[in-house]
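To illustrate the input format used throughout this study, we show a single complete record. The first block contains the structure-token representation of the backbone; no residue identities are included at this stage. The design step must infer an amino acid for every position from geometry alone.
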């Protein structure tokens, strides 16, 4: 091999690419990791880590206020919160990530990678060749809505929202998805006057309706003005900041955060040379192999399958295993197949209250033709009462009556994120409700809600 010859080339050095590359390197394959920005990717510097660092102090203060006798202050120290956030991003310095990659035996190549031929990747004029496979892990980019004037008006995306170093006096957030609600609450608790604009009756439309309703209550309790059933049409600069106007909305803020979704980052990759469309997802099977090609793989947001960091890392591990072992059509649930992408994807929305869900919603389960039974309960057990005065939360269990197994679970309430992995294990394992009855929850914990759900089911 020459210096530009590898067994595997991974394009994209975020968590997904790092996992795929680490897997192939651990399997003895010489692996190059190509990244044009910071190693560690969106999650490390502009998404998962900084956003949760911004949210956690506000949650801690709110939790303390719910337990009488705990001395608390009136407000957050915004400067300290932002400084702690900077620590989690390593001040946007990726040298630590580079050191990890090199220590894992990877060759880090800086620059934009483009597919220029079978197993060939051009990086700024340097052509790398892979004997085994090329893996695309380039993630996703912001989806820009068609708003009149947006191209001419400076505005925030999720990157600016998670990396800003000053609290804006006011902030308008467009979009009621995960980024929109999390950043609306984070900046409101840091002292900004926040307006959240959503197109439907409630935020988080992809989740069970009660989840969005509880988050809506939580946002309003924090002083967020929520404008529902609005259709934004235009953006303009006015005295005092940026104006967002349209059907049912006319608001002004110092900054505008556009949080209307993301799309696969396939532009500039050369995918057109192989019959695919730039800007659209790469179709893959459960091993991550791209349709019609035996040497090209992809994992993470770029595939459009389950655009979440943890699912992308899971898919990357399957890709790495498939490449190392040569697996083509592995059995479902094997290490070389990302089977869970279809039925058991967990997700947490880190607002207060939190939302934690896995599997299908009741509506999606019915659309799939399942014989569905839904069990709904308030989270009202000894553990929740001890956890916080006035604890308010809800739980839903979706059961396939033909198999008597769980196919979906959603929790909404303070600190429910830690409950969801039990539901994920149950769904992945195909655990019946009859067997789940024997998984006795510890007392007094919020997990006792599992017992109450099963009792309500009729066990």
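Output of the design step:
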């Amino acid at each position: 091999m020459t210096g530009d010859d590898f067994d595997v080339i991974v394009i994209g050095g975020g968590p997904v690419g790092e996992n795929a590359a680490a897997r192939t390197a651990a399997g003895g394959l010489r692996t190059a990791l190509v990244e044009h920005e910071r190693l560690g990717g969106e999650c490390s510097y502009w998404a998962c880590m900084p956003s949760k660092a911004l949210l956690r102090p506000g949650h801690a203060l709110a939790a303390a206020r719910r337990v009488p006798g705990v001395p608390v202050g009136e407000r957050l120290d915004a400067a300290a919160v932002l400084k702690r956030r900077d620590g989690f991003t390593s001040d946007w310095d990726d040298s630590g990530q580079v050191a990890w990659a090199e220590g894992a035996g990877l060759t880090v190549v800086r620059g934009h990678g483009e597919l220029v031929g079978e197993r060939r990747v051009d990086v700024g004029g340097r052509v790398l060749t892979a004997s085994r496979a090329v893996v695309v892990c380039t993630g996703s980019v912001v989806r820009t809505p068609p708003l009149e004037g947006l191209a001419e008006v400076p505005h925030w995306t999720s990157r600016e929202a998670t990396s800003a170093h000053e609290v804006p006096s006011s902030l308008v957030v467009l979009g009621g998805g995960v980024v929109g609600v999390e950043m609306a609450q984070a900046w409101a608790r840091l002292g900004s006057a926040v307006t959240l604009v959503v197109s439907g009756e409630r935020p988080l439309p992809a989740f069970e309706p009660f989840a969005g309703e509880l988050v809506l209550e939580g946002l309003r309790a924090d002083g967020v003005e929520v404008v529902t059933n609005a259709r934004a049409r235009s953006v303009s600069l006015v005295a005092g900041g940026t104006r967002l106007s349209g059907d049912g909305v006319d608001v002004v803020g110092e900054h505008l955060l556009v949080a209307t979704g993301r799309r696969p980052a396939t532009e500039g990759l050369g995918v057109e040379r192989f019959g695919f469309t730039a800007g659209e997802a790469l179709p893959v099977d459960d091993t991550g192999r791209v349709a019609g090609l035996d040497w090209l793989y992809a994992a993470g947001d770029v595939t459009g399958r389950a655009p979440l960091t943890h699912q992308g890392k899971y898919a990357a591990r399957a890709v790495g295993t498939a490449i190392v072992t040569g697996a083509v059509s592995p059995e479902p649930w094997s290490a070389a197949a990302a089977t869970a992408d279809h039925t058991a994807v967990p997700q947490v929305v880190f607002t207060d209250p939190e939302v934690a869900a896995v599997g299908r919603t009741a509506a999606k389960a019915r659309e799939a033709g399942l014989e569905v039974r839904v069990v709904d309960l308030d989270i009202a057990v000894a553990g929740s009462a001890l956890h916080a005065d006035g604890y308010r939360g809800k739980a839903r269990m979706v059961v396939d009556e033909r198999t008597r197994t769980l196919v979906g679970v959603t929790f909404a309430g303070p600190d429910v994120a830690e409950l969801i992995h039990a539901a994920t294990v149950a769904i992945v394992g195909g655990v019946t409700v009859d067997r789940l009855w024997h998984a006795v929850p510890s007392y007094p914990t919020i997990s006792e809600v599992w017992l109450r759900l099963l009792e309500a089911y009729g066990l």
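Structural context for interpreting the output: The chain has a mean pLDDT of 97. The CA atoms of residues 177 and 206 lie 8 Å apart.
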